Amino acid sequence: MHEAALKADQDPDRLSFLHAVRVIRRKLNVYGAIPPQQRRTFHNAVLDEILQERVVSSRNRRNPRGLKRKMSNFPLRPATSSPCPRSTFASHQIIK
């Protein structure tokens, strides 16, 4: 992807990662059967195919990435709940 982006003078983040993986997987079987004198043209053809699919940049995304919560049988606490206020002073009445 980096090499394809350099070839087109583009930002590598604008290329589709999944598309690049699919192109490489599809072409991998053919790559071993290419004669050495034709490998450079085949390599350029693969780079050109990777450049065919572009995506919108994921930088400055609106929804930040989040973590998945661990599975548990206990209910989740509300995000805005605060701990229960507890009185630290107890009133005692002394009787004689």
Low-confidence stretches: none
Mean pLDDT across the residues is 76
As a whole number of angstroms, the C-alpha radius of gyration is 30 Å
Measured between the Cα atoms of the first and last residue, the distance is: 88 Å
List the secondary-structure elements in sequence, H or E: HHH
Q: What structural category arises from helix and sheet content?
A: mainly alpha
The total of helices stands at 3
Structure description:
Helix 2 runs antiparallel to helix 3. It is elongated and about 110 Å long. It starts with a helix and ends in a 46-residue tail after the last helix. 35% of the residues lie in helices and 0% in strands. It is mainly α and 96 residues long. The protein contains three helices and no strands. It has a domain at 2-50.
Could you name the key traits of this structure?
3 helices, mainly alpha, elongated, 96 residues
Topology record:
Blueprint lengths: L1 H7 L8 H15 L7 H12 L46
In short:
By secondary structure, the chain is mainly alpha-helical. Helices cover 35% and strands 0% of the residues. It is elongated, with a radius of gyration of 30 Å.
